[in-house]
Amino acid sequence: MISSEKEAMILRYFHAERWKVGTIARQLNVHHSVVRRVLGLQGNVMSAQPLRAQMIDRYLPFVLKTLKEYPTLRATRLYEMVRQRGFAGSQSHFRRVIRRHRPARRVEAYLRLRMLPGEYAQCDWGSFGKLTIGRAKRDLSGFVMVLANCRDIYLRFFLNMRMENFQRGHLGAFARWGGCPRVVMYDNLRSAVLERHGDIVRFNPALIDLAKHYHFEPRPCDPFRGNQKGRVERAVRYIRDSFFAAREFKDLDDLNRQAEDWCNGLASERRWVEDPSLTVGEAFERERPSLLALPENPYPVIEREEVSAGKTPYIRFDKNDYSIPHTHVGRTLTVLAELDSLRIVDGGQVLAVHPRSYDKGQQIEVPTHIEALIQEKRKARTLSGTDRLTRAVPSAHWLLAQAAERGDNLGGIVSQLLDFLDRYGATELDAAVAEAIERGVPHPNAVRLALERRREEQARPLPVVLMPSHIRSHDVAVRPADLKVYDQLTRGEDDDE
Fold this sequence. Notes:
This protein is of the alpha+beta class. It folds into four domains: 4-101, no CATH class; 120-290, Ribonuclease H-like superfamily/Ribonuclease H (Nucleotidyltransferase, domain 5, 2-Layer Sandwich), CATH 3.30.420.10; 303-373, no CATH class; 378-474. The chain contains 22 helices and 14 strands. The protein has helices at residues 4-15, 21-28, 32-42, 45-48, 60-69, 75-83, 91-101, 163-177, 205-214, 230-244, 252-264, 266-269, 280-287, 367-376, 380-392, 396-406, 410-424, 426-439, 444-457, 469-472, 484-490, 493-496; strands spanning 120-133, 136-147, 153-158, 183-186, 193-197, 200-203, 217-220, 303-308, 314-317, 320-323, 332-337, 341-346, 349-355, 363-364. Strand 12 (341-346) and strand 13 (349-355) form a beta hairpin. It is elongated. Mean pLDDT is 85; it is low at 41-49.
């Protein structure tokens, strides 16, 4: 880009002084294409001095006819077409010519719409990258709903765009506003529109149930007409720039707390477009009485999924395994999940209640489920102990593998390592096992020596040893029996005389 002063100089030298394009370019230290561009923008190049005939002139009628029929045809394709017809010029020169002759794209004009208070809200999802939870990488999605009149924003983040989270977003927005708009506008996202043929729309049944409960009308925008919900589109862009950019947070709950504070603070304190003397929060207080009243009971939102239990007492749900009673393996069960917990049911019977995990590959267990299986199958005790050991101390897997190659008793090794695990903890045992493997002595005695050496170096007290239950039972106080009865039995008749 050049300054307006230099553009004026180019025009003066060309029209008043009759300088050529090359002379102007050399004297002003600009490229000749810049000079031609300035003169071409004014539409005076041809009138100022005649241009010599160019190689492309004979092909221009064909090019202009093709561009009229196909306005968006790429210059590279046009270049190949004229080359086949005998054009021998360079592609760069041809591109410059096409740029001047290509018809300008018509810019569509839009009316500024004014929404009635309490009448419309606009809703959409926004993608905000990934969130790492343990070993899992989850999609971080932002649910955004905007009251069209006052521009008040509701924002909440979820780990996916499932229909249940879409419904939870509606419930959160209605609860924030203390009411419900009469019309909620969507684009053609799957959570709202399942199928569309022209003006015939098939809505998602779950959205229709939500609309029946809160008495609002779901209304989709026309295809490729994002301007019909431009206020939520701008809100998503505003959230990216004003809230999410360079934002630090510990977890999803912390991010949602910060989002709520931002909606109540900075987003609510910005100037209202319709009346700059008011803030968005003040405009919302005026709009609040126009909203529909909420029903007494909120809409129940529960994720429901049918799962199959295999031969082990676990079911897989959302990348994690949850324990069930072993009496229900091999069946099709139902998971009823909420944001922080889930229930596993068989018909009307609740089999288990677990905290929900968003990690990956975790085993969430109820201890009684596993203990009941162990009691029924005693052979499972060793396998259960090995599984517990390798999950808590990953390096124990290699120690057991080397011990197996040497022909050692794996059951005894697992029992001793589990005892060390209870006494010293997983961190210390993992370091001691790694040291024993490095020394080439995969034996519990080497692990015990490493544990004791580390304990003495850290000046920690001796671990408390809990005696087994069958030994602790020997310490039960026993009341001695009265032996006078036995003395009476051993006395004879002579003794009585």
